[in-house]
Design goal:
Elements (H helix, E strand, L loop, with lengths): L12 H26 L26 H30 L3 H26 L1 H4 L2 H23 L2 H5 L8 H27 L2 H26 L2 H33 L12 H28 L38
Helix pairs in contact: 1-2, 1-5, 1-10, 2-3, 3-5, 5-7, 5-10, 7-8, 7-10, 8-9, 9-10
Length: about 325
């Protein structure tokens, strides 16, 4: 029998480690996708699908850098897909909560749909242009946030810490507002990267101001509550650091893209400009994942199951501020 609350998990420890690994692999996939968009090499190979080991079959004297970048992105997609298959199967057989099993299936479905979006973006380019590329980029943010959330949901901390219900209604609402704003900010960013449209430029900047304002207000509310401060303290610090970096990267990316005489679609980015834009995209993904995790932590009560024991594990709720159960012994069924 577990001796501390920290040992009570909704999934085995190895699945938590695997979910973290899967999220890490997805970061590499997002980075390569950002490189593909930055150098506009999404159509470097108009043939899809290709086998994962395609780069091992080609004559390396022929392909240009764009071809290699695009196929590296496809290879990373295969790797993330395999990781997600293992994660979904592991949750289906080992998760101690039914909703966690369904989230694993949803993550796998999301990765499959994302792969199809990427493939259709290639084969339907002549018909739809960059429209599917925008959808492909936006949906990637949803999938990444879901995979990061699974890493949190399978952790020991999530199974043992929660916010008292009387402290959370307003914070819950603002966490959802913040997550929605960040997502729309990323949508406008994707439109800006693929179309350079005037509306996308304006809305990307306006939603950036809105995100910062709501994030500051959300942090103010959370820090005013000691239980919320204990629960969200680290994520609030991370969010502040990420927003600061994102503003600096955004200014540099904007100047590198729009400052000059030639229109942005006629100017090839330098390596430094490309690195800045890729970092800007990645930090945006991290910000979305962070605010989604905050919302998940605040909505923990929605993940509570009935008092029925699942697989012989006790259903436990930790009181606010309680760190461990050294002086408490959970009662198992059939225990006197």
């Amino acid at each position: 029998m577990p001796s501390t609350f920290a040992e009570i998990r909704f999934a085995p420890r190895w699945l938590h480690a695997w979910s973290v690994l899967t999220a890490g692999a997805t970061v590499a996939l997002l980075a390569l996708g950002a490189v593909v968009t930055t150098f506009q090499v999404g159509m470097a190979d108009p043939i899809w699908p290709t086998v994962p080991w395609h780069l091992a079959l080609i004559d390396w004297s022929e392909p240009n850098p764009g071809f290699i970048i695009e196929h590296s992105h496809r290879l990373a997609g295969y790797i993330v897909g395999c990781c997600t298959i293992v994660l979904a199967l592991g949750l289906s057989f080992s998760a101690r909560r039914s909703w966690l099993k369904w989230l694993g299936i949803a993550a796998l479905a999301g990765v499959i749909v994302q792969g199809l979006f990427g493939g259709f973006r290639v084969v339907l380019h002549a018909w739809l242009g960059t429209n599917l590329a925008v959808i492909h980029g936006c949906f990637a943010q949803i999938v990444f946030s879901l995979l990061v959330s699974l890493a949190v949901l399978t952790s020991a901390r999530f199974a043992t810490e929660s916010l008292p219900s009387e402290n959370s209604p307003r914070l819950r609402r603002w966490s959802l507002v913040l997550a929605a704003l960040v997502f729309f900010q990323l949508v406008w960013g994707a439109l800006l990267r693929h179309t350079n449209g005037a509306l996308a430029q304006r809305m990307h900047l306006m939603t950036a101001f809105a995100v910062v304002a709501v994030a500051v207000w959300f942090a103010h509310i959370a820090l005013a509550s000691p239980p919320a401060r204990r629960l969200l303290g680290r994520t609030l610090i991370l969010l502040g650091v990420l927003l600061t970096l994102q503003i600096m990267l955004g200014v540099e990316s904007w100047l590198g893209k729009f400052a000059g005489v030639l229109p942005p679609e006629l100017r090839k980015p330098t390596i430094g400009q490309a690195a800045t834009r890729v970092a800007h995209v990645l930090i945006g993904s991290f910000i979305l994942a962070t605010v989604v995790v905050q919302a998940v932590l605040l909505h923990r009560s929605a993940f509570q199951t009935s008092p029925k024991r699942e697989r012989g594990w006790p259903s436990l709720t930790l009181r606010a501020g309680e760190k461990n159960c050294e002086n408490s012994v959970p009662q198992l069924e059939g225990t006197a």
